[in-house]
Amino acid sequence: MKKMLKILGFGALLVYFPVILAFVSFDRHKTLCRDIRSEISDSIANKFISAEDIRNIALEKYPDILGKPLENINTEKMEHFFEKYPAIENCEVYYTLGGVLHIDVKQKRPVLRVFDRNMSWYIDEDGDKMPLSTKHTAHILVANGHIDKVKNKEELYDLAMFINDDPFWRSQIEQIYVDRNGEYILIPRVGDHTIEFGGIDNMETKFRNLKALYQNGWDAREWNLYNKVSLKYNGQIVCSKVN
Q: What average pLDDT does range 81-94 have in this prediction?
């Protein structure tokens, strides 16, 4: 009996799915696009583009989309179109029964803002250059100074990502300054000192030693007694006091 029920259940599925697929196909053929709805992920942290912007862009690019049969809308082509925008990392376009076209967008996440002479831009979490926006300013780590002295721009990205990926350093370091020799000086939020970081060689060790100094080496009264902390010397931390 159980075997017979399984066979009957399997047979019902074989009949059910073609009917459903035929229904969906028929529905898509008959249903017209009656509305466009957009959702922006990470819209609290970043506001480079809004749901209203997406809807307006879609209507400008495809002025006849409302009232158009869903089957005649190339969702993949629309996704590629939106992903060309500098603030958009990923886009998914799909429709639901009832004729609603959905455009879901994931924004790019900047990790560093670079100031170089009279120019400024972001570097996103993938290491790509990202232009500024008139709609939103990201409050993130800043790099300035002699940016042209950085021999390998990936170094700046690697340093920024290390700081951003660690909650302690993300809250403590607010600026990366590049000196005339192309070496890095870090500016902390707390304390009146600067951090001579040097190059990014042994970066993990340098940050580990600096964290040990902050957490175990100094007490609260000593944070403002030093104007410079140097990590340039292998395995050493050299602190210079205010004169």
A: 95
* Those residues with Cβ within 8 angstroms of residue 191's Cβ, 6 or more apart along the chain or in another chain: 223, 224, 226
Do 117 and 231 fall into the same domain?
yes
pLDDT-derived band at 239 (thresholds 50, 70, 90) equals: confident
Q: Quick one: how many helices (H) and strands (E) in the chain?
A: 6, 12
72 plus 149 within the same structural domain = no
Look up residue 212 and give its two tokens: 């040990």
Together in a domain, 186 and 144: yes
Q: Are 87 and 108 in contact (CB under 8 A)?
A: yes
**pLDDT of the residue at 218:** 79
Beta bridge partners of 176: 143, 186
For residues 36 and 56, what is the distance between their CA atoms, to the nearest angstrom? Answer: 10
Tokens of 194: 């600067």
